[in-house]
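FAQ
Q: What does a multi-component entry look like?
A: The components come first, one per line:
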Amino acid sequence: MSANPSFTPATLLAIWRKARQINLIDEKFRGLLRSGRLAAVYYSPRGQEILAAAMGVHLQPTDYLVTTYRGIHDQLAKGIPLKPLFAEYYAKATGACKGKGGPMHITHPETGVMVTTGIVGSGLPIATGLGWASQLKKDGRVTLVTFGDGASNIGAFHEALNMAALWKLPVIFLCQNNLYGESSKYAKTTSVDNIGERAASYRMAGVTVDGNDAEAMWRAAGEAVARARAGEGPTLIEAVTFRFMGHYFGDPGAYIPKEEYEAHLARDPMPATRAAVLASGAATEAELDAYDAEVSAQIEEALQFAADSPFPDVGEIDIDVYGAAA
Amino acid sequence: MSAPATATQAKPEVITFTEAFSRALHDAMEMDPSVIMLGEDIADEEGGGIFKVTKGLSTKFGTERVKTTPISEQAIVGAAIGASLAGMRPVAEIMLMNFITVPMDQIVNHAAKLRFMSGGQTHVPITIRTRTGAGAGTGGQHSDMLEAWFAHVAGMKVVVPSTPADAYGLLLGCIFDDDPCLFIEDQLTRTQTGPVPVKGEIIPLGKAHVAREGKDVTVVGYGRPIRDAMVLADKLAGEGISVEVVDLRTVSPMDTGTVLKSVAKTGRAVVIHEAPRSFGCGAEIAARIQEELFDQLKAPVLRVASRDVTVPFSRVLEAEYLYKASGIEAAIRRTLEKRTQK
Ligand SMILES: Cc1ncc(C[n+]2csc(CCOP(=O)(O)OP(=O)(O)O)c2C)c(N)n1
Ligand SMILES: [Mg+2]
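Then the predicted structure of the entire assembly, as tokens:
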């Protein structure tokens, strides 16, 4: 990658398409949850679509992803197919994890989705190990680990950053700072103005970007991926964003002042990016609408698959506890 | 490059536990390039580990494969998990068992569960080696046997050897097993010796070992107290008491079949372990025996274990804390007294 690659309309469109897929799925899921047709824990990524997509366009299917309970945008940006993903949300035998992991533990190694964890901050040490394996095997893969702002206050974050920097591992630590951890405001829990600053403690490259700005996010992600692939070590990216749907599905969000919420809404990255795509000339309104229709049809097909699939056989409970040799 | 001290060519008659651990690690690394190691101070530049178990390995296999880490237990276990997901067989050293409290999340929530939660798409073939044991004057935070915590978590395998040869074969068993294994080394007996294992011979996990056959009473447990039981069995044989010793080797998943077969034969059982008595693995062993063999038991199943207190420093108190061989003997005699009553 050149020092200052040009951000083309085609790239912007690619980011939009991924982000829009995430957005349409999230809207659909929230509708299903509201109507009771889907019963699952759900942590909406609404507001964080662009940053995930702008990261995702730099990655290969063979690269690794470690994400969290709020991870559906990361999984989709990594390329996870819809049917096994949806069927897992539906707790079905055809789910990616045969219905045994659920939304908080989505795994799909074929597309590099290695771990989804419900324990805040615990993905970072695991990502460090995936990066270590790539370094040993010289396989050229990079590992992306994503987590929230709150996760940057847990010990595992600091242990992992130190180790990854020390060993120059091909890992990208993507902190999605949505300004809240559950119902606690960022400033109430975090000692630094920007989490990106924390990289300096580990002599790691660190950057704070506007995660809602497709180009800025794409540049930061591209630099981090290039650094990792070149064997020049890890990067901490803090992507500043906002989550519009609260912590969990159904969170009344009373802890967010109305004016603050509205200010964020005015900067919602989805309408802004759509407008930018149209302005760039990469696609027409009609083409974007056609894309929406195409994705919506895929969503319906995958939902039907999930709904029609059987629940796991109860005998499944004794499988995968230990390997075959046990 | 000269061969490390641990890979001796000439076969000595006996080896110590420490030599057995070292040799297993050496041979595993030689057998399979995906075996890698990480832990605090483990490379030769740092002395080959504070107990010298890894001495020579980084010199022979390189510091890429034998990596000294920062004092970061969460990152050590987490990195082992991550590397294992990418096809490696990492062996992580947690210097002492009490420090395993720090990476509990990585072990309990991730290593143990990823196979199940992923529906078998991923698995975590890691080995966590750690060391512990009371009797060395190391006090409350450097002596605990915490194996019951891990035996309680589905997906983990917990292994405690009682002889150097078993230590060698079982450590190889852990390294080449496809599940996360916790391998516990006893710090008190590390210089004790036993017969030399056969190079490369793996002892499969999940199988108990009848260490001595007998007909009057079964003593069942794992680790250091098995050594006491073997000595006692010799002594009691002189009195005509025939003791069968069942060494679980793998604490969990437990080989219940071998235990039940033995107790069905003898009708009596004494369960032994070093960890404190209450809520220890002994309770589980005793429960399984009475659930299946209630009608065949000639005496209550007894437990011999250490006291339910913090491991004390003073030698007199530490000795009071620890299970005693005399306690095992007394328990054996008690189960036999019940015979005359029945
Ligand atoms: C170790 C741990 N502590 C607490 C929790 C409960 N919890 C779940 S999500 C969350 C907030 C995390 O905030 P952040 O890291 O900012 O991520 P976000 O949810 O905002 O994406 C908390 C406290 C947990 N899952 N794990
Ligand atoms: Mg947050």
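Q: Is there any commentary attached?
A: Sometimes. For this entry: Residues 11 and 196 of chain B are 8 Å apart (CA to CA).
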